[in-house]
């Protein structure tokens, strides 16, 4: 009879009144009335206690369910994991613990089971049972045999060689004199003792699994019998029990006592009953099935992911196997893996070769196992002898495990393809409309990140395409400079340097040959791997020496030497990793990189995949920002595709709202009520996304600014670094760099050519320095020992010629580094990087402008919107203007100051030359005439720089020939040699002085560029006309408004003249010498005629001022010329002419000269030209003020002041004469006229009439008081 259908049982829902009888309903009503009569506070406390009890019970129920699920999972693992444990013990423990003929069967069983699983996907239960029974019987017999062999009679009866092959060793021995004493064999290793223990563990594991299997089988049989014995009356009784459980749900929520198992008993009893119409049990079964499917699905997904990546693990295992265990057989694995790595579809070919790989791996393991027997002799080059074969076999089995996984994945994909092909021919016709699937809110939220994920993938892809080539370039350094330098590493560096040089010289040719370059690198890396690997075989060194004729030391210079396993792993791993990096670039990033960096086909590049990804990323970023900034926009709107503005327009339109819209709003309200925490997190993510995207846009703007600054100054950075390197290491190699920089700075047309020459020469120098580090180069063989003259009056022991053996290679620029090669080459490598980066900056900016249809700005400025007309707008615009055009406006004065700086820092013969060059340039006075001679001045500075570097190099010391001023007949002092900047082996010239000359040359070259640009009309419009003002033709136009900038200009241009005179006075009074007296005379003269001088014509003012500048430069020059007396001949001057020293303030202020004790004292801080340089600076600045049109306002102000003074003085005299006879009204009118005059002329008249106005006020007050009396 079929039972009555009941609704599903829910333990957490209170039963309704329809399910209760009448009595229970009345009791419930009475209880509710009593509850209403209670105090509200008591009701609230009871409700709170009920809620706490329900929450506690729910936690306990959840914990109980978790324990049950854990127990079930552990039980399943014991059923399935026991098999895995058995298989692992068979193969990886028992068989490899002590290789022998008796243990070979375990290894074969392990390989057979794993190969069977990899081929078919599962092990048949019948086969596994047979293997288990056989292993149980065999392991027991094996252990008994091992145990019996410990008997002394068996050990004496059996020879020791045969039992050793079978794996039988005497762990203990018995002495016949003392049979009760057991002696452990001390000659055995740890694996001899572990082997019987693992054998015993195997036996107990298999026996335990069989015992559990028999117990489970008997339980299933009993349960089937109980189910069949249930009668209909018993089933109804069980159903009645379930109904009672449904009614008394609140009681079930209480925590059961530890001693009562009623709840668990009823639950277990009900779980054994199955009713067709019972919806509650069907629901429980569905929940259990879904839970099981989720658990299995998660494990399946994880295992599938591991299987999909098995080809990478297999390739890595092949290389690790071959590198760790060197032999001819494992060399096949190395070649095999290299060939697979080189293929573009490496995954496909790796899966295709998986059966052969498994077969070869099994063969290698079996052969290695056989040759690990104690009595089997080793085979050099194939199976070397190992003291501990257990570890070697374990690692090989671990690598073999990846091969089995690879085979499993290959067959699985093959089966899936066959299934797809079969299903592709099947057509299913569906009638009717397909029902719309329900879309959950969580799915929309989690899946709505498609737009962001697309943008993220585009950004990451573009980043890898752009920068992966830098990873490849970095790997060149890892390969070349790891360990000591050898020939094959030098070849790596030669390939890298050739690539960089071609990139710098010819960009299009570099792009055309780039694929061939990477192919050559890959082939060469494979060749290096094979040669280094095969050289580890015992017979390889003698073979190489026989066929090449090279000794062992020469082969070590090539890079062929024997290494230990850890060192070999490092030596092979780094080239192998470099090989993989190059292959990844060649297969995945090479073609997109060429598309991305193509300068000719910019229009076609817009339609390429890479550019489309970039544009998609930018558009999505802008779209996200626009939507997120909106008050109602969010990432959810972007993901779903909704537009809140459309809804707002519909609401504003007041259109009719149908039932579907009302239903959609209700659904949205329900979702918001159901997921409040989810919505709050979404808002947080939205705000963070806004901040992140704004940060990205700010970084992009900063990036553009940085690239523009690099384009402006990269040439200065590169040339400065080259000169600094040449100064740090003075040698013949670096002479070419100085010549190139000295020629490229004044001649901009030669810069690309000379930059290419520097690049090629840097590559040559780097290769020569690397080759010099080989062991074949021994400097001691060709070093020279020079003989020091015995009767020399000067101590020459510190001279380069006589301090030790002279290596001629050091004069060229080569020396041994004692293992610190990268530190030795860092200057040249950084120089090469800067040269390559320079052309990268220019090409990147060119590509950027071509893709955006932009042209280079006409002026190389920082703020493109600031021009000459913004100079007088305000302080901020004035600062921006000078940041843009400072050198355009004051470059010439800056170069003059740099020349004075060179003179003051050097104070030697070449400083005198710079002083005369400065005098020559200043003698032309006019900016136009100076511009005509400026190119020759630049060439002069370039020639002086190169000639000084030649003097620093000098003659090669290996000739043992000293200079004429160091011969026995010469009496030239070392300080004089130093002042003359002559080459010398004892006191060589200071090359740091060349840095000051270079800065002067750099500034002069920039000023030469300014002279060329200021003639262009576009530059004149933007930067202003830089021509000098002619006072006779000047027109005054006052566009200036009252501002802080106006006040600053009034202070600067009105009072700068008097401030400069103050500086001249300070310069003349800080020291006491004949030169300072000239400053004082000039200062007093200009103070005397200063006001009248400013009102003279401009050419007259400039004539006086240029005379003062000429005197200042003359003083600087004479101090420089007289410095030879203070530094070179100070000894004779002190003895005979002390007055001359004090008259001209002679003192050597440059470091490096030999100081002597002087009886004629003079403070050394009074002899420098610091204050002369400061005075020169302000004199130039005031001269620029004189030639500025702002100075016309100063002249006009002075003229108005004089005019006002001349007009107001007669009227004031007339007021004094008529004062006594005038009335108070007349005096008041006069006073009003004075006030009007003061207000009209401002401060210009107030300074002249203050006393008179005070007198008028006083007399007017006195006159009024008299009249009142």
UniProtKB/TrEMBL annotation:
Coiled-coil spans in chain:
none
Please tell me whether the keyword Transmembrane helix is annotated for this protein. yes
GO molecular function terms here? mechanosensitive monoatomic ion channel activity
The Piezo TM25-28 domain extends over 1042-1208
Q: Where are the transmembrane segments?
A: 325-343, 455-479, 485-505, 517-535, 568-589, 610-630, 718-745, 824-842, 885-903, 909-925, 937-958, 1050-1066, 1072-1095, 1102-1122
Q: Which residues form the Piezo TM1-24 domain?
A: 30-595
**What are the entry keywords?**
Membrane, Transmembrane, Transmembrane helix
A single GO cellular-component term from the record reads: membrane
One Pfam family of this chain? Piezo_TM1-24
Q: What is this protein called?
A: Piezo-type mechanosensitive ion channel component 2a, tandem duplicate 2
Origin organism is Amphiprion percula
């Amino acid at each position: 009879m079929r039972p009555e259908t009941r609704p599903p049982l829910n333990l957490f829902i209170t039963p309704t009144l329809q399910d209760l009888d009448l009595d229970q309903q009345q009791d419930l009503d009475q209880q509710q009335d009593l509850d209403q009569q209670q105090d509200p506070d008591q009701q609230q406390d009871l409700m709170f206690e009920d809620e706490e009890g329900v929450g506690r019970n729910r936690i306990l129920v959840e914990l109980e369910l978790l324990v049950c699920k854990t127990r079930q999972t552990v039980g399943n693992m014991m059923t399935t994991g026991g098999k895995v444990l058995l298989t692992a013990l068979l193969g990886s423990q028992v068989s490899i613990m002590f290789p022998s003929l008796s243990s070979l069967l375990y290894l074969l069983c392990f390989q057979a089971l794993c190969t069977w699983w990899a081929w078919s996907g599962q092990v048949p239960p019948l086969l596994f049972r047979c293997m288990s029974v056989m292993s149980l019987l065999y392991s027991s017999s094996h252990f008994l045999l091992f145990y019996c062999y410990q008997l002394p009679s068996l050990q004496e009866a059996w020879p020791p060689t045969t039992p050793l092959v079978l794996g039988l060793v005497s762990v203990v021995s018995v002495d016949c004199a003392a049979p009760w004493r057991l002696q452990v064999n001390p000659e055995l290793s740890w694996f001899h003792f572990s082997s019987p223990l693992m054998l015993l563990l195997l036996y107990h594991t298999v026996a335990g699994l069989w015992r559990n299997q028999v117990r489970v089988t008997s339980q299933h049989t009993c349960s089937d019998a109980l189910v069949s014995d249930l009668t209909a009356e018993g089933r109804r009784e069980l159903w009645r029990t379930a109904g009672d459980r449904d009614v008394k749900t609140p009681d079930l929520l209480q925590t059961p006592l530890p001693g009562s198992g009623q709840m668990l008993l009823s639950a277990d009893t009900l779980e054994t009953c199955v009713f067709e119409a019972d919806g509650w049990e069907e629901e429980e079964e569905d929940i259990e099935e879904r839970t099981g499917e989720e658990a299995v699905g998660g494990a399946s997904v994880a295992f599938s992911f591991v299987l999909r990546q098995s080809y990478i693990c297999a390739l890595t295992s092949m290389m690790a196997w071959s590198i760790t265990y060197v032999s001819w057989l494992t060399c096949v694995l190395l070649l095999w893996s290299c060939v697979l790595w080189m293929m573009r579809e490496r995954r496909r070919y790796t899966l295709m070769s998986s059966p052969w790989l498994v077969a070869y791996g099994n063969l290698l393991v079996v052969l290695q196992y056989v040759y690990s027997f104690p009595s089997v002799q080793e085979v050099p080059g194939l199976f070397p002898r190992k003291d501990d074969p257990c570890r070697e076999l374990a690692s090989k089995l671990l690598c073999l495990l990846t091969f089995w996984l690879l085979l499993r994945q290959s067959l699985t994909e093959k089966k899936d393809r066959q299934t797809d092909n079969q299903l592709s021919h099947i057509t299913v016709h569906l009638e009717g409309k397909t029902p719309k699937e329900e879309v959950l809110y969580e799915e929309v939220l989690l899946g709505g990140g498609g737009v962001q994920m697309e943008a993220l993938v585009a950004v990451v892809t573009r980043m890898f395409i752009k920068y992966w080539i830098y990873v490849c370039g970095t790997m060149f350094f890892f390969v070349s400079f790891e360990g000591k330098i050898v020939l094959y590493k030098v070849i790596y560096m030669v390939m890298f340097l050739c690539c960089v040089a071609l990139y710098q010289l010819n960009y299009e040719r570099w792009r055309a040959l780039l694929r061939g370059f990477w192919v050559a690198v890959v082939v060469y890396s494979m060749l290096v791997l094979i040669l280094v690997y095969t050289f580890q075989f015992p017979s390889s060194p003698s073979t190489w020496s026989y066929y090449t004729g090279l000794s062992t030391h020469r082969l070590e210079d090539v890079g062929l030497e024997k290494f230990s396993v850890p060192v070999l792993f490092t030596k092979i791993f780094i080239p192998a990793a470099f090989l993989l990096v190059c292959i990844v670039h060649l297969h995945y990033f090479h073609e997109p990189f060429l598309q991305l960096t193509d300068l000719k086909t910019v229009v076609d590049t817009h339609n390429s995949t890479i550019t489309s990804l970039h544009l998609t990323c930018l558009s999505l970023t802008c779209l996200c920002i626009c939507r997120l900034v909106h008050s109602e926009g969010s990432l959810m709107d972007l993901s779903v595709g909704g537009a809140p503005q459309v809804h707002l327009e519909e609401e504003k339109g007041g259109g009719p709202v149908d039932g579907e819209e009302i239903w959609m709003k209700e659904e949205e309200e329900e979702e918001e009520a159901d997921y409040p925490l989810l919505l709050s997190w979404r808002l947080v993510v939205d705000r963070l996304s806004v901040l992140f995207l704004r940060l990205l846009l700010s970084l992009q703007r900063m990036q553009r600014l940085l690239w523009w600054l690099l384009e402006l100054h990269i040439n200065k950075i590169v040339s400065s670094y080259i000169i600094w390197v040449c100064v740090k290491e003075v040698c013949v190699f670096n002479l070419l760099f100085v010549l190139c920089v000295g020629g490229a700075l004044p001649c901009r047309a030669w810069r690309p050519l000379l930059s290419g020459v520097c690049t090629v020469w840097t590559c040559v120098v780097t290769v020569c320095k690397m080759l010099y580090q080989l062991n074949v180069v021994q400097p001691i063989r060709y070093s020279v020992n020079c003989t020091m003259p015995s009767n020399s009056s000067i101590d020459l022991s510190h001279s380069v010629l006589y301090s030790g053996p002279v290596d001629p290679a050091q004069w060229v620029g080569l020396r041994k580094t004692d293992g610190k090669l990268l530190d030795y080459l860092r200057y040249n490598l950084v120089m090469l990087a800067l040269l390559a980066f320079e052309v990268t900056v220019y090409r990147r900016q060119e590509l950027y402008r071509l893709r955006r249809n932009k042209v280079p700005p006409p002026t190389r400025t920082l703020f493109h919107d600031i021009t000459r007309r913004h100079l007088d707008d305000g302080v901020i615009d004035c600062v921006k203007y000078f940041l843009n055009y400072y050198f355009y406006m004051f470059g010439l004065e800056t170069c003059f100051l740099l020349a004075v700086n060179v003179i003051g820092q050097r104070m030697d013969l070449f400083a005198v030359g710079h002083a005369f060059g400065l005098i020559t340039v200043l003698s032309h006075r006019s900016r136009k005439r100076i511009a005509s001679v400026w190119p020759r001045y630049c060439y002069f500075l370039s020639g002086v720089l190169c000639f000084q570097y030649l003097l620093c190099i000098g003659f090669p010391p290996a000739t043992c020939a000293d200079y004429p001023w160091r011969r026995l007949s010469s009496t030239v002092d070392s300080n004089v040699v130093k002042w003359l900047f002559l080459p010398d082996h004892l006191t060589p010239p200071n090359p740091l002085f060349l840095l000051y000359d270079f800065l002067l040359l750099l500034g002069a070259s920039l000023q030469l560029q300014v002279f060329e640009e200021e003639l262009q009309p576009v530059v004149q419009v933007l930067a202003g006309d830089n021509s000098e003002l002619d006072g006779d033709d000047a027109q005054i136009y006052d566009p200036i408004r009252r501002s802080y900038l106006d006040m600053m200009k009034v202070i600067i241009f009105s009072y700068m003249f008097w401030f400069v005179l103050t500086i001249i006075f300070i310069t003349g009074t800080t020291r006491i010498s004949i030169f300072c007296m000239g400053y004082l005379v000039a200062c007093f003269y200009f103070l005397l005629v200063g006001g009248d001088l400013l009102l003279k014509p401009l050419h007259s003012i400039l004539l006086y001022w240029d005379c003062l500048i000429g005197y200042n430069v003359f003083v600087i020059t004479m101090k420089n010329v007289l410095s030879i007396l203070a530094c070179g001949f100070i000894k004779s001057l002190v003895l005979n002419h002390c007055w001359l020293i004090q008259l001209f303030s002679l003192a050597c202020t440059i470091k490096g000269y030999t100081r002597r004790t002087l009886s004629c004292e003079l403070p050394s801080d009074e002899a420098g030209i610091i204050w002369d340089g400061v005075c020169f600076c302000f004199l130039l600045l005031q001269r620029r003020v004189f030639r500025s049109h702002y100075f016309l306002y100063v002249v006009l102000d002075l003229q108005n002041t004089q005019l006002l003074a001349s007009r107001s003085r007669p009227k004031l005299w007339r007021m004094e004469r008529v004062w006594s006879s005038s009335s108070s009204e007349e005096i008041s009118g006069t006073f009003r006229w004075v006030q009007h005059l003061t207000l009209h002329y401002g401060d210009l008249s107030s300074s002249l009439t203050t006393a008179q106005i005070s007198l008028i006020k006083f007399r007017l007050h006195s006159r009024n008081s008299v009249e009142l009396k």
